[in-house]
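Hey,

Quick one before I head out. I ran the complex with calcium ion overnight. Inputs first:
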Amino acid sequence: MITLNETHDPALRSWVTSANDGKTDFPIQNLPFAIFRRQGTQQSWRGGVAIGDQIVDMAAAVQAGLFTGEALAPAQAAAESTLNHLMSLGNQAAGALRKALSSILAEGADQQSIVQTCLVAQSVAEYALPAQIGDYTDFYTSIHHATNIGRLFRPDNPLMPNYRWVPIGYHGRSSSIGVSPQDFQRPCGQVKPADADTPHLQASPRLDIELELGVLVGQGNELGSPVGIEQAEDHVFGIVLFNDWSARDIQPWEYQPLGPFLAKNFASTVSPWVVTLEALAPFRAPFTRSEGEPQPLPYLDSEDNRSAGSFDIELEALIETPTMRAAGQAPARLSQSNYRHAYWTAGQMVAHHTVNGCNLQPGDLFGTGTMSGPSLDQACALIELTSGGKNPVILPNGEERTWVQDGDTITLRGWCQRSGAARIGFGECVGTVLPARAL
Ligand code: CA
């Protein structure tokens, strides 16, 4: 498990002054990675590291000879057009690069004048997916979400008996995962209203959000070689925000017996900045099971997982309707939750996913599942917030929302904050729904 080191020192400041205001998501203690280029150009995509409101252009920084020794190979990998190679090198290599970046960005660094020539303002950047995502698995790790959804779909049997034993997931589709800001058309699909005898094809009115985190796999494992829980986090590179858009009218008609299909694979949005597990080290939390809940099977259990397998990550979802946009009103919060509500940890997801010998590859994505907390205002999907569409959410300007309407923009945010550590954040995950194409 990655422990604290000098890169986490809350007293550390950067010569990039915007990194020191205490409010930025990207102080020198964070140093997340993305793939970027200057907006409106045909420049090559390359890796970058966020610092305050700037980006360290890793291609330029490598060219300038800023990295040597153990940091050189990961720095070269971080300059490529996807982060897959960097991810494949493992967390020790990423840690060496983090140490080097921290040192050249710290106040008083000898290299300041050279690094300055490698900075690009985030305000003029556009982003690509951080990795080529080979496979995407969506888990279901909030027991509160699983219970709320289960109650709507199966009132007499909300939580299936396997839930408390198996980190439930399904294999999703990666081709429709896009980077924030993602605009996409409302999906069409087959729906069958309860009072209809037969289904029909239509644009889905019951379009929903799912506020999740995305866990990006680092080093892979060989087919046939399970990853034990003790080594599981060595295979996790970092975490992004993830909106797993869902069509709630397509879903109930198609999901039995093989699970989600077209209700889920038309669009999913990730935030551009990957926050590494090392950056999250100050915000670890114990993995606990409340009274009466069974303990995990031994292959999902370890001392480290129990003492610090969870992460304290605050999460929120906001909505901006076209009316709000026209009136210049700020986005309104739909919900606020925390990754600590997960019933299964990232390490347990890796250990379970590979226990049958399944091979993970660098850049694979795990959705955590909708990260709803125990109370209604912590529900992270509209289907829960509106009790299945029965009770619309009233927005501050008086508008109502039961489902996402055309032109609505949903923004997810995440951040970590505690005394004795520098606050870090994930940036934003933004998606806008466009009208469906004509049928
Ligand atoms: Ca999901």
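The domain at 136-434 is CATH 3.90.850.10 (Fumarylacetoacetate hydrolase; domain 2).

Talk tomorrow,
K.
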